[in-house]
Specification:
Layout lengths: L1 E4 L3 H13 L9 E4 L6 H5 L7 E4 L6 H9 L6 E5 L3 E3 L3 H11 L3 E9 L5 E3 L2 E3 L5 E3 L15 E2 L7 E5 H7 L12 H11 L3 E12 L16 H12 L1 H4 L10 H5 L6 E6 L9 H15 L3 E6 L7 H8 L3 E2 L8 H8 L5 E5 L1 H14 L4 E5 L4 H12 L2 H20 L2 E4 L2 H10 L5 E3 L19 E4 L5 H21 L5 E4 L5 H4 L7 E5 L5 H6 L2 E4 L9 H8 L4 E3 L1 H4 L11 E2 L3 H12 L2 H18 L2 H13 L3
Parallel strand pairs: 1-2, 2-3, 6-12, 13-14, 13-16, 14-15, 16-17, 17-18, 18-19, 20-21, 20-23, 21-22, 23-24, 24-25
Antiparallel strand pairs: 4-11, 5-12, 6-7, 6-11, 8-9, 10-12
Amino acid sequence: MIVPVYNHFEVTLRCLISLKSANSKVPFEVIVIDDHSTDWRIPELLGKLEGLKFIRNQKNLGFIQSCNLAAQKAIGRYLLILNNDVEVLDNWLDELVSTFEFDVNVGCVGAKLIYPDGKLQEAGGIIWEDASGWNYGRGDDPDNPKYNYIREVDYCSGACLLIKKEIWEKLGGFDELFVPAYYEDTDLCFRVREIGYKVVYQPFARVIHYEGVSSGTDINSGVKSYQKVNQLKFREKWKNILSYHLTSEKLNELQIRNRFAKKFVLFIDATTPTPDKDSGSIDSYNFMKIIRSLGCAVTFIPQNLAHFGEYTVALQKEGVEVLYYPFITSIADFLLDKGDLFDFIILSRITVAREFIHLIRNSLRKPKIIFNTVDLHFLRQEREALLKNDVSLFEQAQKTRQEEIQAIGLSDITLLVSNVEKELISNLVPSAKTIVMPIPRHIPGRSNGFDNRKGLLFLGGFQHLPNVDAVEYFLEEIWPLIRKDHAEISFIIAGSNMPAHFYSMDGKDGIRVLGYVKDLSDLFENIRISVAPLRYGAGVKGKIVTSLSYGVPCVATSIAAEGMGLKDGENILIADSPNRFVESILRIYKSPDIWENLSTNGLAFVKEKYSINAAKMVWSKILFEGD
């Protein structure tokens, strides 16, 4: 961490105190380089502080040469250039460093700069075609969502700029063409990008910047006067690149803050994804990550307009702009005002599509509509109605059928999760363009073998009523048959939003009720078999994909395995009666060879069909078809 200093003892001391007091898990060294200050307190007092390296120039070298000199003394993996007129806030350094862990292609990263009065100073920098610069967001509310997601930028200010040391050394540090100061940080960022790395703004690294303390604010005098001089030098050096940096009059607001985006995608879902709690959320979360990885800018709006704490932040840290109240008060108004800035609008679930699809189709010209069904709700509802012989449920299913068919007809593309659903829709809406989208999952693989595992597992989110019914059916019809002769086998029930009456069974008759489990790896590394005894539902079941992705064999009903392409006896066992279900469980549970075969084949199957890359290929075709 390099802190260049020229006089301003009190300012520098305030900076150093903030470094010491701000929470940070990342270890760091501080190198203060005194550029031959005339204030005697700098060398006499700061120079004797414990815990920092102090270097004093024998003559005044200026900001650029001082930083280059100090960098030669640094020993860390990263170099941080930090103005002495900065106060850092909690977790600032952890957030900066974590940016490199999110994306190995990041070369340097800058912080959110905030004025002492709380207003935003900079959320990344923009360079126009004449080489003039713009501190994006200057004077605005730093909490506005458009300043609170990680994104690539033209440059980040050298007031707080972290770079991989190997890249710094490869580039030779700041270009001394710009001595004594100004445009050296912008030039460094352009050179980082030139060798294939990203320059990224990190909104969760927040620092207060007392702008102008070090070099003043008058561009006609002192060091600040070099801002004009160096703009001309920078313009000449990068004239070929700058020819692509259009003016604000030629760009819309999305293009300005997402300069490097290939497409602009708006994603609307019922709520913010909670991928540690339900399968549908994993899909939505991974879809947005995939679209981002393809070079597109993604804006997400939850239908309830709620900021959902860590789950909202998780998306923002993946580079997704998330809009929420009070910065947006009406999705309909937003669509009318900003909708034509997007290339695609994804409406996830019929509950979202029914509210907005007519407005989009009738009022917007540019965006293509993608209807993400998640599963065919009407199919699931019809099956529930038949199972329960409930007329009112059947009437609701018919209403949903009409709504989903209408939404499919109004959409440019409809996403379905299986060929079974695709065939059904091709008969109901022959003109519809439908695409089977594999549910995307990370494939962690298997660690333990047969001998180190025991017990059965049901995993599911219990806001989804088919899961509640499945567990009740299993406990009433299947579990007593297993326990009759095999009391050594245990049954674990895990998942979010667990019904209260399930908890009353915990510890009884070999049943363990875990409820919500944040990290599933320990569970799946020790369980022998998963079960999916669903009696109604639709779509592809994430619980099966998750189980097989850990190499855990699964016994499932035909409904649960529907449309996945799994083969009974090869990569799964399928059973639709209680007795057959019991036989299938015991067949796997008692045979290491059968277990090993199903485990290996199931894992190979999901790697091919349901990996992130499998979904990424489909999304690439959708987003760039015809380009």
